[in-house]
Design goal:
By secondary structure, this protein is of the alpha/beta class. Helix content is about 35%, strand content about 15%. Helix 1 crosses helix 5 and helix 9 packs parallel to helix 10. It binds threonylcarbamoyladenylate and magnesium ion (MG).
Length: about 300
């Protein structure tokens, strides 16, 4: 099969998707590995390319002009959140409609839906005029890609095309909110707990016990290097000094949380390129997107 590498040609991307191909797709959060949701063969290729178990459900991405109610059943919380944050970095987990096939949800009766705001993603979705599944475009368990080049590094000729939309603005995966019987945040992201309380008037339930979203494994988003999390830059520098004669260390710290989120995954990749053995990361403040940064750091630092 012909592969086209990195390109900005949306028409070519649509043609590839319509003929059952898979592509790297830019979004404002991270790059996705996209296929037509209703094409079973193409969706199976996404699972196989990622090396992801087929029972791990996928997010369906929709154009802002699509009728999302044909895909999911929206209660008043879901309606309010969709109205406030779509298009944007929010995924809503809702009961699925009969349109949504088992191969997307791993047989579950719920579906994860998201309307991304990235202009090229929107153009692609509008022209494809259907839902596109798109897990992050990395190999299973590895760091998510935030540039077209990252996708090329991970998946190379295993994808038919990588649509280049520049660097992802947010840099971390979307917030996932379950809107079924209870309101619950399954994955923290840029849309914060405070945002959700403001819009729904409800405090989301704490996610405890085994994760409701398979794929949210403890060890995830992992670079090759060992990740160590510390509370302050001073502490990071002390530890760096202790290690630096013996082992190559990469220090991770940003004074601005938005930049920290935007560059986190790229920094983890740089550490691996430089063959660093240890990444010392300074914990972000526990508010807003800082919670999402700390969540990804904890997963990158978890035992494998
Ligand atoms: O920002 C994002 O959300 C990116 C971009 C590409 O849109 N996508 C992304 O997809 O992070 P993925 O597949 O890497 O993560 C989606 C998460 C997985 O942990 C999956 O288990 C969960 O959402 N999920 C999807 N559908 C679900 C469902 N029906 N029930 C429970 N969890 C679900
Ligand atoms: Mg992922």
């Amino acid at each position: 099969m012909t592969t086209y590498g990195i390109s900005t040609d949306v028409s070519l991307a649509v043609d590839i998707l319509m003929s059952g191909g898979i592509i790297g797709m830019p979004t404002e959060t991270v790059y996705g590995l996209a296929a037509c949701a209703l094409d079973e063969g193409a969706v199976h290729r996404v699972f196989d390319t990622k090396g992801r178990p087929r029972n791990h459900p996928l997010i369906v991405h929709l154009s802002s002009s699509a009728d999302f109610r044909t895909w999911g059943v929206f209660n008043s919380d879901a309606e309010a959140l969709a109205t406030s944050f779509w298009p944007g970095p929010l995924t809503l987990l809702v009961p699925r409609t009969s349109l949504v096939p088992d191969w997307v949800t791993g047989g579950r009766d719920t579906v994860a839906l998201r309307v991304p705001s990235h202009p090229l993603a929107q153009e692609l979705l509008r022209r494809a005029d259907t839902g596109l599944v798109a897990p992050s475009a990395n190999k299973f368990g590895r760091v998510s890609p935030t540039t077209a080049h990252h996708v090329l590094e991970d998946l190379d000729t295993e994808v038919d095309l990588i649509l280049d939309g520049g660097e992802c603005e947010v840099g971390l995966e979307s917030t996932i909110v379950e809107c079924i019987d209870v309101l619950q945040i399954l994955r923290p992201g840029q849309i914060s707990t405070e945002d959700i309380i403001r819009v729904t008037g409800k405090i989301p339930k704490e996610t405890t016990g085994p994760s409701r979203a398979p794929g949210m494994l403890t060890s995830h988003y992992a670079p090759q290097a060992q990740v160590m999390i510390v509370d302050s830059l001073e502490e990071a520098k002390t530890i760096e000094a202790q290690h630096s004669t013996l082992r190559k260390v990469h220090l991770l710290h940003f004074s601005n949380v938005a930049s920290y989120a935007e560059h986190l995954y790229d920094e983890l990749r740089i550490a691996d390129h430089n063959k660093c053995e240890i990444v010392i990361a300074v914990r972000a403040p526990s508010t807003g997107i800082g919670i999402a940064i700390n969540d990804r750091l904890a997963k990158a630092a978890a035992d494998r």
